[in-house]
Amino acid sequence: MNPLEVILRVSLVFLFSQLVLRLLGRKELGRYSTFDLALIFLLTVCLRRTLVGDDDSLTTGFIALSTLGAWDRLFSWLSFRDRHAARLLEGRPLELVHEGELVHDNLRKTHISQKELLSQLRGQGRDDLRTVRKAFLEPNGRITFLFRESEGASSH
Predict the structure, then answer these.
(1) What is the pLDDT of residues 135-144, one digit of tens each?
(2) Membrane spanning segments where (predicted)?
């Protein structure tokens, strides 16, 4: 296969997969179940032929892997150098709790239930939402909590 065709195919599939993962939402990226791992594995199997066609040569495999690495490096560099690019590529934290009160619109947007949020809070050794000053769904899919100063802890 022509090396430029490999680079183009890998680039298109990589960019499309980034779009799909972004549309799935951050919550899904922050927790991996066996279903998620199976999906990721099967995704790579399904896309293999799309990336390199019938070409099993080492050269094509190296070109494909190098192209993926280059895209990842470029996105990391852009995110580091430009806050607007970082916001576009990585997203922003989304507030889920404000001064002990749930931000229902954001919980709905992210498909996080109150039960799930409280489970995450218990993972921090707390069980009362009133002790939370703010909670955020981070771009990496994790939930972080900022606790009231009177509780003696300031963050997760």
Answers:
(1) 999 887 889 9
(2) none
